[in-house]
């Protein structure tokens, strides 16, 4: 059996999900770490931005998959991507991701990236992003996801901030389209 057949078989009968059962932010929070190597960097030893972006997409997708219990999620949008400081060969890059907002079929994951110098133990915040995923069903069509239910005041504040940001961005998009 080739790897593609194995993957297809593994998810042939997807478990039914209870869409009334919401999940907290903590439920799907996830961190991915990797040591930066020669192949990740340019000739000056700086890690390529694209390496960080790929790590972010992979790590944030883990959160989306954990939240919606679906093996198929696609990246619909990278809302913004800020590079705040460089990372270097030998740094351990950590991509910390958590669910910030959930629509009917879409999920916005907030991402903070840090780089740690293992010798000095200095940890620098090097990037941040918001990535939106859409859950797909067996026919690769958008499918509903469980709601995001805050577990405490801190989670309520995170979700509220994300909703305000989304509203402002939607307003801006309408203005730029000339609809407002
Ligand atoms: C993302 C995608 C599935 C949306 O399909 P669609 O037919 O436009 O779906 P819909 O109009 O029903 O929208 C579904 C959801 O996606 C959201 N969405 C669609 N495009 C979006 C975008 N560019 N940015 C943010 N959200 C988007 C919609 O707001 C909607 O959210 P909601 O259900 O929470 O309200 C489709 O555009 C696609 O397959 N894009 C390519 C994805 C891809 O290949 N990514 C890279 C590799 S993973």
From TrEMBL:
This is HotDog ACOT-type domain-containing protein. GO terms for molecular function: long-chain fatty acyl-CoA hydrolase activity. Gene3D superfamilies: Hotdog Thioesterase. Belongs to the acyl coenzyme A hydrolase family. It comes from the Bacteria. Keywords: Hydrolase. It holds the Pfam family 4HBT. The keyword Hydrolase applies. GO terms for biological process: acyl-CoA metabolic process. Residues 26-139 form the HotDog ACOT-type domain. It comes from Ktedonospora formicarum. GO terms for cellular component: cytosol.
